[in-house]
Queue: 4 jobs
Job 1
Amino acid sequence: MPFDRRAVLAGAIGALALPSPRRAFAADEVARVDALIARMTLEEKAGQMTCLADSFRPFNPPNPQAGIQDEKRLAEEIRKGRVGCLFNGIGVAGARRTQEMAVKDSRLGIPLLFAGDVIHGLKTIFPVPLAEAASFDPAMAQRTARAMALEATAAGLHLTFAPMVDIARDQRWGRVVEGAGEDVVLTSLFAAARVRGFQGRDLRRDDSLLACPKHFAAYGAVSAGLEYGSVDISDETLRETHLPPFGAAFAAGALTTMAAFSEINGVPATADRELLTDLLRGEMHFRGFVFSDYTADEELVAHGFAKDDRDAARLAILAGVDMSMQSGLFVRYIPELVKSGALPEATIDVAVRRILYVKTAIGLLDNPFRSLDAQAETTRIATPAHRALARESATRSIVLLQNSGVLPLDPGKRQKIALIGPFGADRANLYGPWAFYGDPDQGVDIATGLRAAMADPALLTVVQGCGVRDHIEDGIASAVVAATAADIVLLAIGESQDMSGEAQSRTVIELPPAQQKLAEAIAAIGKPVVVLLRHGRALALHDAVANAQAVLATWFLGSETGHAIADILFGKADPSAKLPVSFPWESGQEPFFYDRKSTGRPVTDEHQTEYKARFATTDNSARYPFGHGLSFTRFTMSDLKLSDAALRWDRAIEVTAKLTNSGDRAGSEVVQLYIRDRVASRTRPIRELKRIERVTLKPGESRTVRFSLSRVDLEFVGAGNQRIAEPGEFDLWLGQSSVGGLHGMFTLYVQEQGKG
Ligand code: BGC
């Protein structure tokens, strides 16, 4: 059976109500586009299929400076109709000038599409996507995506190369930071929410920003986490783990996607017809257009798949790439490829049609100056409302990993605080990767945030101690002096923003030795230490850092970093985030994820570990598991009930439990439902997340949480790539992380005709 998109979606996102996949293009739009194509020369068609860096308004994006056209040349190309899309330039005045070249000076006047990497904010920088996923609150991501869309479209953009929906199970891979972590259901929920947020309800509105879920597909599955590396993957894993977030994004209305740089099973994604056409369009029913990634078509030569650039262009187009990013290969070779018979013109027409449909769908053909409003540019960007939202989402993204009781700090108490570490007063690493439109001096650093929250800011001492990677002279000595004089130490350590993101694969996911040494020296003094970790991936923590009195995962939080951290430290907000990635004990456990397989020799008794599936040097569990995150209050769960111990084939069961806030502060908990299929025709993970629900309770308050489960939730990709559920026994846990929880069991029955 082919890939059943609806079933995959239902399996991936459970009970979430989805809009039915939209019918993207109306009949009159089709006729209009066809009429236009009939008038286009081959060169103009190739132009529509070409997207180039906007060298009129250069920024400093993290791409190699390959093939950048100078301004004069780019203007000429636009006037000749040899460009369909520009990317990574912002600003309304410049965009208007450029659009005029396309509309007034080119023969057919087809407007340009303006695209850009607005990954977690334009000017107001929200937490990196991985951080935001820690909120376990897709509705929050939808709100921040909407705010990003308001800013991006006010700056003249029509499309963002986001969300990244790649599942990341190896923390050595630097791009973990751009996605929603290791889990299929969580990533699917965030994928759909972000698409909805970017695009809004009506694509024609001038504040609707087209989404481009990327990188199709399995880009996060590169071997050893090596960026741009190879992916060798089974059909089952591809379909069960890596495709559902794309399905969710398409169902939420995404009309573009981007092919991955990597190869899958020996074929580079950019040239993989089975992937980009048979699977993406034939089985997943994707209706929009496909971008190549940055010069990825040209890279088919280095892959050893195309013999030269001309061949690379041909292979990418035949595979199903519609829009070439940055190489310029399409415009250079398409006319000749078609004339020589190496490429059918009909194939080109299909690609151009897809691109023009999308331009039509956002109203660009009717109004080329859509989203180019100088007034909006002054009122919709970096607004106080967006700042407030950035603070709220940053506060929601901070995970309390451990706490001996030292937190929250009492804002009324006169205590001396030493803020030590390379990130205490640092402003260069607040935003994280992919925030290159943001103004670096507009972010609130930790020291500033703390001072604003303290009754007496003079009680704060700030000492750097060491650089991110290097020792500094007298650094540790001055830090020790400050810590000795303080009542409590806040240790702001971790990764700089250039240590994660694209091309930042690391073999060791630990703190740089200079920072570990600083942490050891501070711990030796014996003052309570709160670690404020900055990072774009899960880290393996050791010794003084792992043994600190409290540890907070603060990722890269964006514009409001300092305020959000202060809100949590002083208890103005209760931490309620959960880990979207498992923190292993050691780097060498990677790839590590919670929904792994049992193996034939699982460790069931920690005293009997010989000849078991574990490393000789470390337990193969997590230091902090997926879904883990503490609160300042205490939540307890009780009274797990299943409406029926038998789940009939076409029915559902209801699962309920009582959640109680048994502490003395208000707080929020994310209740998580996991299952395990005990016996199946394909071995199943030891646990799989199926549902999440965020609940906010006052002290002493209880609430019953309810979930419904049906057969679809139990399906997996079995033999012949069929999605199937198999009758039999299932474990179920309702808990506060992927470890422990209330346990129940049920049995799935095939319902006999006329019975039950
Ligand atoms: C990245 C894409 C990004 C593109 C444009 C590439 O290097 O892989 O995710 O959208 O550059 O900046």
Note: The domain at 27-378 is CATH 3.20.20.300 (TIM Barrel).
Job 2
Amino acid sequence: MKKILFVASECVPFVSSGGLGDVIGSLPAALKKEYGDKADIRVMIPLYAQIGETYREKMELLCHFDVPLAWRRQYCGVLSLIKDGITYYFLDNEYYFKRQSLYGSFDDGERYAFFCRAALESLQRIDFIPDILHAHDWQSALTVVYLKYKYGLVPEYSGIKTVFTIHNIQYQGIYDKAILGDVFDIPNSDEAVLEYDGCINLMKGAIVCADRVTTVSPTYAKEILSPQFSHGLHYVLEQNKGKLCGILNGIDTSYYDPASDTELYANYSARSLKGKRADKEELQKLMGLPADPDIPVLAVISRLVDHKGIDLITLAADDILQKELQLIVLGTGDSYYEQFFACLAERYPRKAAVRFAFDKSLAKKIYAGADIFLMPSRSEPCGLAQMIASRYGAVPLVRETGGLYDSIHDIGCPGGGNGYTFAPYSVWELYQAVGRALEGYSRKESWETLVKTVMRWDFSWKKSAKQYIKQVYGL
Ligand code: GLC
């Protein structure tokens, strides 16, 4: 029996701020399906204040103990619950995790150092020593480093192998060197493992220490070896290239299923799109736009930040809105972009509608009601929105980068594709691609065929779960 422990900073359905939470909430179940009885897969996350009562009621307190963190001794409670055959552990410390938001506190370095140290301290106490500890992104990176540098002499832990997954290389956990001894409890003599460019860099430490490093698409795995995408880490990755691979994420196709989704006004499937037409009309009404089945609805659901290509959308918006279409934007992010879209909706009240929120229920209504889904990211490790949009029959229009390149192929490709793509990062290219998509939309019959093809495209975890088992967990 293979024992695998995921350590991460968020997990659907308990608490999530984006794609990372989706992956942690769906990959373990997919692995379990493939392994059958041959694996025991568990997940460990912080017990944030944001985790709701419905889950807390079901949790059981397993143990509590003090965690050493340099000169500190901090309480940690371990709670657990089992959901769909997966055991979840929640590490409790209100001082660190009862905050307004998941990230962005002045002491995030200390909070996640605590989490990582507590995770390792808990293993013996919960009697689950994994064969593989799979850590995700910088918040969990120290588990990989600690295992080597702090727990190397603990015999029970000596067999644990580590996998580190980069979900987004932009966020590395970079701190002043003073944090090393005072918080991380790592002596200066071991500084080299975490030092990068004059700072302490948690992601770098995990890349160096992990037995395997993965990222969330094959193309991103290549891209991050170059300075254009690496946010400074290309040297370290080049040196550790031999243990790096990219595996495309999947989505939970039963959670994202227009045939059974209770958030939708009407359900539908690739067999009949009648329900989708009703959802479109409801969406138009909900957003205060004229309810017209013939007008194509373009949607953006995204964090409103640079790397998502939002600047291209802002620059193309006026020209695009000269055409007969409606544009719906949902997301939160940089105030510059929020202001831009608020003005846009005022200037085009019958054509553009925006909501600034992280709202999963509204997002599903938009995926269902939209005809075309825009995702012109400057860089995209994997991207899940294009897969979710496909599942709901909103044809993706993406820029060819990272996981977008690996998941969406232009309909002009030999053998046919599942969306519209463009490569150079330019407003003109985006504008052209939108023009092609609108032309496609105007040919009703072939459009419906495309929508059905897109909906049937396999974005489940099946293939990727198999790859993890073969290429990564086999080590
Ligand atoms: C990050 C990436 C996104 C990816 C997700 C899950 O949020 O930005 O591209 O899909 O992680 O791996």
Note: The mean pLDDT is 97.
Job 3
Amino acid sequence: MEKLRNGYLFPEISRLELEHIEKYPNAKLISLGIGDTTEPIPEIIASSMANYAHALSTADGYSGYGPEQGNKALREAIVKAFYKDLQIQDTEVFVSDGAQCDITRLQLLLGSKVTIAVQDPSFPAYIDSSVIIGQAGDEGGSGRYGSIEYMKCGPENNFFPDLATTSRTDVIFFCSPNNPTGHAATREQLELLVKFARDNGSIIIFDSAYSSYVQDDNCPRSIFEIPGSRQVAIEISSFSKFAGFTGVRLGWTVVPDELLYSNGFPVIHDFNRIVSTCFNGASNVAQAGGLACLSSQGFKAVNSLIDYYMENANVLGEALSSVGLQVYGGANAPYIWVHFPGSNSWDVCKHILEKTHIITVPGSGFGPSGEEFLRISAFGHRECILEATARLKTLFL
Ligand code: PGU
């Protein structure tokens, strides 16, 4: 813990927000910072959780501990909804209380001796959990943590790392669509990544938390769409951004049977051991909600929320482009990644907050290559998004 240089990014953003509210109590603050969903959970899903919770008060409806790996019906429904024709078995799906928690459980499985690579920029939990488990430490306040391989992903390489110059590591964290850049890797890019992992004997931990936002057919929603991935990849995913479950808490991880350590032992056995020992299964009420999300009516309802947030992303992206800013992302993800050449991203973030009362996230919080960029979240009520675009246009015109 001593080697963690900074506080965790998102509580820092919340602190910035609170300080601003104290300073300007009458300002109408708009939060486009933390990627938190804002729209109500569809009624059919909320009522299935309510009914399940209420039935717990009856002799017939009561249930206690469930299987640590999740309820079979939900595991099967996840396979059907997200891994159709991809050879994934329900026994390879582990239901969780969210992707963030499984990132840390995977770190526990991997231990302190592995080497890791991350996209730069990337979701900060990968690096911070690596430091917590003892894989790396701060290198003299440089913003880099020793022994982590930073795979630079920017406009100059179409947000995909130059694998020819990337060192071999035991583990590669890869998030697509990416948080924060909003870039979704193409099929060709993911084929290169899988080949790289196979050649090097590395494990890819593929974070598909935003997969339901992918619009482009050439951008896979799962790493398991890539042939050969079953021997090298684990996938973590979530109901958070898919169904507005950021507070309900539900996710899953897929560990294929064919993923083996170099001594031939299946990784799935150890992950099962970690889940049984360090987790006791996701809340049964949340799992009832998850199952409702995957019913045909529930699925339709959550997809219309995704369309709503994607329209927000479109509105924001067009407005910022129209004032001459270079805008990335937003086409397959609910995040806009805006370039402010030559700037310090915390300064830009604070300037925008001061002038427009809009919270964003400075790119450098996601890694050294995020400097000069700002992440703007498309989660928000439409009227707030429209108000934010008007304020930003006025500031930058
Ligand atoms: N993976 C990625 C890539 C994410 O962006 C997030 C959340 C998670 C996992 C966590 O998902 P859960 O299933 O809800 O655990 N990222 C948000 C929220 C930040 C936070 O507070 O952790 C973001 O703004 O980046």
Note: The first helix runs from residue 9 to 23.
Job 4
Amino acid sequence: MLKLLFVSTPVGPLGTGVGGGVELSLFNIAQEMLRRGHTVQIVAPIGSKFPQLPIVEIPGNVQIIAQSQERNTPIMMPDNSLLANMWEYARQVQNEYDLIVNFAYDWLPLYLTPFFGVAIAHFISMGSLSEAMDEIVTKVASDFPGTIGFYTPSQAATFNLQQCPCLSSGIDLSLYQFCPEPENYLAWLGRIAPEKALEDAVEAAQIANTPLKIMGKMQDEDYWQQICQNYPDAPIEYLGFLSTTDMQQQLRQCKALLMTPRWVEAFGNVAIEALACGVPVISYQRGGPAEIVQDGKTGFLVEPDSVAGLVEAIANLSKIDRYTCRQSAETEYSVEALGDRFEQWFRDIINTPVAQV
Ligand code: HBI
């Protein structure tokens, strides 16, 4: 059995939605490893709430979210850095574990790799965002082959890295209830932030004259206010950041999930959450969702940034069989399949002699 130390994203407590999709990934992978009998210890910010999972809570000031920075913004560390404190803890306990798994999209843990006596698996949760991260990710991929893992090939391609493991994602399907007959609603899920281009979904809902339920962490209040001012008559309703159980209760009743990523979405966990409920996904043909949605079968892939394309897809939803959507989630995105991929990745790294660089 493996002894695994999971070190969280440092942008906010787990379970609050600040960490976006990587929170859900960390939770599902940890739960599945424990179910298989492995030892898992999670190192995370104070206030992290993951039911039944063993968490060591670490104090300190959160890291600035990487997507708010420019490509050449220098890496910044606050005083009393939570990120540094988490990795100091990992350094102290490292010899109790076979492998450390890093879930942070940050320079420090990647730079620290050769300073540790225990191997580190780095799960990269976003596409390329900065020169400094590209440089250190590429260096670790070269010095420690196989230890950089991505969600998808299109995400890896943004770093010009080809040979790295792509682990995809997965969810606990038992939490998502299939709904055969939807209400006349559309859904949009995600952190309310510019890179998610919520405004396109709002405009499409207005043109299609179909109410839009919006759920997710309110990351950028000004951005949200701007949308409300620009679309005062749009049929939208913001429901906040809900637990998986409450979120899927809303999502499952919708005609479709709209995904409008302005950036290369690394995966798009919300897409498989929708499919698990039988909800077709309409997404820009960009990044992770383009590898998840089977165009015309489990939803529609639309020309990126084309609101008209979203509206046309909404009009064609009757062509999609909702049970086919649920089946695709069961076939591709179960938490058991996820566990197989991650366990294999972990074992491959543990069995690779550590490169003495
Ligand atoms: N920014 N600096 C930093 N570190 C992270 O781990 C991080 C982030 N921004 C967003 C984020 N993680 C997650 O929301 C995405 O990986 C899903």
Note: Residues 296 and 320 are 7 Å apart (CA to CA).
